[in-house]
Structure formats: C-alpha cells, structure tokens
Design a protein that fits this description.
Number of strands: 16
Shape: rod-shaped
Distance between the termini: 142 Å
Oligomer: single chain
Largest sheet: 6 strands, mixed
Length: 591
C-alpha cells in the first residue's frame, strides 16, 4: 500500500503522527518542498529506526556527463545538522549518466560528527541493484571513529570510585564493579570514547512525574548508556530500553533452615498420626481390660500378703495411673496376683517398651535435623524468623510499593513494625544475625554469599536457603529510549557474552552459594529445641493443681452438714411430748 503526494500540504502533521506505521518514505530532491520536508522529518525524529528513506536525485547534464562534486557537498551541507545517526536508513540514489545510478547511505556517527556517505552499490537497467555488501547496519557502522559516548555509574559507597577494577571490597557495589569493565570493553569494540557520571540511585518516579537517578539522566538524554545494570520493571519501559546483558546476581531472602524442633512440636513427629491414634485406642482397650480384671481379682480374694499391698479395691483412676506409669516408663504400685490382670499388664509393658525404643531412636535424629518447610513468603511470615533487609536504596523503594497482602504484611509486621525500630541493616550485620539466630535478610545474592564464605564455619554453610521476594529478573544494561546506538550496543553485548569476558568478571565478583561439605560438628540441643517438653512439664503440675482443687471442692460438698428443719411457730415442746405419748398408747392398743 502506498500514497503519492505532489505537495507538502498537510504532510508535516503526517510526519509527526506516532500511530503511522509507514516505514519507507520516497522523496524526489528536485521538488521545491524537499528540503523543508527533510527538516520537518528531522524535527519529529523520523530519521530513526524503523523508518527508511529513499532520496532520488537526477544529476545528469544535458550532454549526458556526470555532475560535478559540488552536488555532493550540497547533500552534506543539508544533513550536517540533522539527526541521521547510526541507526538511520537514509539512501541517496543519484542518477549520474544514462541508466547508471549510484546508491549511498547518509549518516553521522554522533551529534558532533561530520556527514558520512557510505557506498552501498549501484543500479542499472540491465543488472538491477548490485549491492556492495549485505552486512546489517549495526555491523557496517560499528566503528564510531572515536565518538564520545556518555554513561552513568550508580555508586552507593563513595569509596567504590577508587576500587572499580582492583576487586577490593567485592561485596560493596558489586553490580557496578562488574558492569564498569563491560562498558570499557564495549566502547573499545565500537572504537568510541566513554565518560561516566556518578549518581547514588538507579532512579524512581516522583509524585510530579519526573524521574531521579540514572533513569532520569537517560530519560532526559543526558547520558547514552547506563553503566550499572538495573531491574526490569514495567514503569521504566516507557522511558528507557533494556539490553540483554544480564548480571548473574539479584536479590533474595537468605536464611538458614532452622532445626525442626524450633518450628514444630518435635515430640509429636517420631510417629505418624495413624500410629498415635492406634496407640490411643490400644491404651483405652488396656484400661478397660485392666479395670474388669482387677475388679474380678479383688472379688475372688487373694492372699494376706497381696491384701497388704492392695488394701483397697482398684478404681478407674488407679487403673489409669497404672497405664500412664507403664507408658512413661515410670513404674506403678499395683501388683497383679491372678493370671488375667498379669496378662494385661505384661502386654502393656511389652508394648510400652517397643514404642519407647522406637520413639527415642527417632527423637534423637529429629532433634538435630533441619526443617525444609519454609519455601514461600507466607511460610516465612508465619515462621518464628526475624526478618530484615539490606539498607540499600532499591530495597527501600520496592518494599514501600508492595500491594500483595503477604509481602505487605512481611514489611509492616517484621521489617518495619509500628512502634519499633525497623530492621534495616548492613550486609555484615545481617549475615552475622543469619549465622547466630533465626534471622532472614533480603540482600544482594552475590555479596551475601561472599560475606558468608568469609565468616561462616563449614558446618554453618549447610542448610542455607534463598527465596525470591521481588519477583524480578536479574539486572540488565539499559540505554536511551530509541537510542541511535541501540543495535550497535546490543551487538557488542552479545559479543561480550559469546567471548566469555562477561563470565570472567562475574566469576571474580559474584560468589556462588557455599557448598555444604557435610555436617562436621555436633548440634547442641538447648531450651529452644526442648520447648514443647518444657511446656508439657509445666502443664502437668498446673493440671494436678486443678485436679486437687476439684477434689477438695468435691470432698467439701460430700461432707457438708445437713441443716435441721425449723419447727412451726404454733408447735411447742409440750405438744410434741403429748403427741408422742398418744402414738405410744396407740401401739400398745394394737398389740
């Protein structure tokens, strides 16, 4: 589909229409309005990709000889101040003689560079287009001939500027120290010079709609390339573009899996639920059999020695204490005499011994085993862990933007609880707390693991876990929106990845998760691990006091004095005596 216009009327607005997806513009330079139209296109940025331009010019003389080079100077003068940068596709087809037309590309390497006329081949009626080469634009124009590019580094610690290449303090501004040599390598590949500005923020949107930090510099076109990688988030896509040059680091919650006994009732875990239910049913059956057999034994009678040991008949509570004493390996005072109660108690003791052996074998292992139940932010929120975050600018920004109820609750309840000091910590303090207590820190992964390798003992490196919290991909290099160097930078970034130079710096700066070499030390068990046992020991005396109180109240109620009925007011003692005598006389008469 195409349109043909013979005047520029209404065409200036068409050039500035962002919804117009036409990519090929053909313009006859012999027209009177050609130069004004080129200036209008330049003002609206229509020379940048993906637009393509074909400029037609007939330079034949009346005698058929080619025109002088003065025409070429005119073209260069026309485009000297126009934004025909390395991403533009402006073709100049000049008919010089007969049916021979030369084809050249017009571009400038930078805002201060001269116009370059690139030979792209020629056209003849018989041979058609004969291209000089078929290389893409990003490869043909890779040589920027010393063009100055502007970049920006995000530095949160002022001392980092002195250690960008010596690998000192690798855990401080690690992403900047990794990306800085990449910028230098890509600049050398493009044969360009590069200068750096310094800022302390990646850049965030303010309430009035402006951008701060490195994002603001790119949005205002004060720099060409971002020298420090940043996270890909939706709100930045309108003001800058990302290059697929990832840094193998990111952020996550880092913590040590706690002992299983710290987060659950370890004393209920040795047996499955079905085993506990079967054990309860068995004890109820034994209690019923023991009650019946002891009653039967007492009624039949036994020896005087047995009666001295069992002076009273066994009650249900006595039988219950026998069962509990046997199961707890504490013994009991009851001595069965006849065969049925002996069979019941022997069955009880054998079963209790088997269960006790199995229980103790499992409990020793479980008391020193780590849990693996903390896998999601909700698990972390409901765990006994204290939670903190590395005090760095992007953590504070993203933590204030959460709308997800779980993540928002983590921030409001554990990172920044109301009425308490917030858990914003340095990386050194956070990793120390991870080592010594139940603490999870949200930090950069690479620097955190470097700190862990330097300070943790070998056995303390076991059970380390990380949990993604921000749900963003690894940081990427960024450039201006619709940058004229976009494809050249992307080509250089892919080349950096293919040659392995990227992995060299990542290997030096970003530590991997420490390997667990086996648990070499004994894990001591303290009050925390035995919490549920202590609770049960405290509940026992409290329960016994409650039972004692109930028994005392029951005893007092059973032995309360009986109140005598009051005599009627008209009834005297003499009347009672007379009535009793009358009753006696009546009995005598009956006899």
């Amino acid at each position: 589909m195409h349109e043909i216009h013979q005047s520029s009327k209404g065409f200036d607005e068409r050039l500035r229409d962002p919804e117009d997806h036409r990519v090929l513009w053909v313009l006859d330079l012999e027209c009177d309005y050609a130069i004004p139209m080129l200036r209008a296109a330049n003002g609206s940025g229509m020379f940048g990709a993906p637009n393509k331009w074909l400029l037609l010019q007939d330079r034949r003389t009346f005698d058929g000889t080619p025109a002088s080079d003065g025409d070429r100077d005119g073209i260069e003068e026309t485009f000297r101040e126009m934004a025909v940068f390395p991403d533009s596709e402006v073709f100049l087809a000049r008919r010089l003689r007969g049916d021979f037309t030369e084809i050249r590309s017009i571009y400038r390497r930078g805002p201060l560079s001269e116009v370059v006329l690139e030979d792209r081949g020629n056209w003849t009626a018989d041979g058609g287009v004969l291209p000089r080469d078929l290389l893409p634009t990003s490869r043909r124009r890779r040589d920027l001939a010393g063009t100055h590019l502007r970049s920006c580094l995000v530095i949160t610690n002022p001392d980092t500027i002195n250690h960008l290449t010596d690998y000192e303090n690798q855990h401080i501004d690690a992403i900047t120290k990794a990306n800085y040599p990449w910028m230098l390598i890509m600049a050398r590949r493009m044969n360009a010079t590069i200068g750096f500005q310094i800022t302390d923020s990646w850049g965030y949107k303010t309430q009035n709609g402006t951008w701060t930090g490195m994002t603001g510099l790119l949005h205002r076109r004060e720099v060409d390339i971002g020298g420090t990688g940043m996270f890909l988030i939706e709100e930045r896509l309108d003001v800058l573009e990302y290059v697929q040059l990832y840094s193998k680091t990111g952020t996550a919650f880092i913590f040590r899996q706690p002992l299983l006994s710290m987060i659950s009732n370890i004393f209920a875990l040795p047996f499955q639920r079905s085993v506990w239910i079967a054990t309860g049913v068995f004890l109820l059956a034994v209690l019923a059999l023991l009650y019946v057999s002891s009653k039967w034994e007492y009624r039949l009678g036994t020896s005087a020695y047995w009666e001295s040991l069992n002076p009273a008949q066994q009650t249900l509570s006595d039988n219950l204490m026998v069962v509990l004493g046997a199961m707890a390996q504490q013994g009991y005072y009851y001595e069965p005499y006849r065969v049925p109660p002996r069979i019941v108690t022997l069955m009880l003791l054998i079963t209790a011994l088997s269960l006790y052996a199995s229980y103790t074998a499992n409990i020793v292992t479980l008391l020193q085993s780590t849990a693996d139940t903390i896998k999601t932010p909700a698990d972390l929120l409901n765990s006994p862990f204290k939670i903190g975050a590395q005090d760095i600018v992007y953590n504070r920004h993203y933590f204030s933007q959460f709308q997800d109820p779980v993540r928002k609750a983590i921030v409001e309840q554990k990172v920044e609880p109301r009425g308490y000091k917030g858990n914003w910590v340095t990386l050194e303090e956070g990793m120390h707390r991870v080592r010594t207590e139940l603490f999870a820190i949200h930090a950069e992964i690479g620097p955190a693991y470097k700190q862990m390798q330097d300070t943790f003992l070998e056995d303390e490196k076991c059970g380390i876990e990380q949990m993604d919290f921000l749900n963003v991909i690894n940081p990427l290099i960024v450039i201006q929106k619709r940058s004229p160097y976009r494809e050249i930078v992307r080509n250089a970034a892919h080349r950096l990845h293919e040659t392995g130079l990227k992995f060299r710096d990542e290997h030096r700066l970003f530590a991997r998760r420490p390997q667990c070499q086996g648990q070499t030390s004994f894990v001591s068990i303290g009050l925390t691990e035995c919490y549920f046992a202590l609770v049960s020991m405290c509940c026992g005396p409290i329960f016994s006091l409650v039972v004692l109180l109930l028994e005392t109240l029951w005893y007092k109620w059973r032995n309360r004095p009986i109140k005598e009925d009051k005599l009627p007011e008209d009834l005297t003692f003499d009347t009672v005596v007379e009535e009793s005598l009358d009753v006696d006389q009546g009995f005598e008469q009956m006899q």
